Sequence to fold (301 residues):
Amino acid sequence: MMVVNNIRKMRDISARARGEGGRVVFVPTMGSLHEGHLSLLKRGADFGGLLVMSIFVNPLQFGPGEDYLTYPRDIDRDTEMAEDAGADVVFIPNEAEIYPEGFQTSVDVPFLGRNLCGHFRPHHFGGVTTVLLKLFNIVEPHVAIFGEKDYQQIVIVRRMVSDLNLDIEIDTVPVVRERDGLAMSSRNGYLKPDERMAAGAIYKALLAGKSCFDSGSRDASIIIGEVEDVLSVQPMVSIQYVKICDLDTLEDVDTIEDGALLAVAAMVGRTRLIDNCKLYTTPEIDSCTDGSAGTERAMVW
Ligand code: AMP
Fold:
């Protein structure tokens, strides 16, 4: 596996793979890898070709007072894990090369970034799309893979790819979870033991909402009420939002027709966690319980 720190070199490697007729498959991350990230690499390996993972803690997507400086970084461990999971290249650009002095261009997908996390982190998705367009331009992938844990990000990236005529297929993997259902996240490491226990309530709350939906309720406020009831018994969990929204537009819905997204953001102590679950009227698609595919540690509920 190659570790590449330089944009020129990354471009050359990618151009060579393309020139030889191979596919370039790209998994962008901020590192501090866990099994959620590895499931993206495993999915990427299914496409064949050159499998590139980037690791870049992107300052643009952190707001004031957020955890940019303290975000966990462990490049040695990450490169080892990426290699074991089959990556061909780990691209670790340095910040000064990505954002040289005078850098000022940004890419924004304004309406899809308004609801859910975008409401609470107003500059977050602009930072995400800006760095992703740059990484797409450097890596020039045929396929890029994203996790459904960040569902809003997927919808926004798909919009950007379509709006800007990027010739990139966006592929996704389900949420990978810990044994108690907590969605894996690099930020879970911030949780103190009692907070970690309490954080399990987020998945339980999603399941309560899903079970309300499965038993026939289509009224978003009733389902949201069920989710909030489960969360509110945990004093360490403070709800930022519980929302039911359209899977494509991300607008809030009052009554669920064919399907919708149930999404939660909560503070557990000082750590902000998000999770979601698709609510479908077709029973064979069960997004709350399929997220541990391919991993042994994670649990299927
Ligand atoms: P991050 O390093 O947190 O920016 O995440 C990089 C990619 O990994 C994004 O596409 C995330 O959606 C995805 N990801 C993070 N956690 C999980 C998870 N628990 N399950 C599936 N994908 C995940």
Remarks:
- Residues 29-30, 36-37, 39-40, 146-147, 149-150, 173, 175-176, 183-186 surround adenosine monophosphate (CB under 6 Å).
- Residues 2-173 form a domain with the Rossmann fold fold (CATH 3.40.50.620).
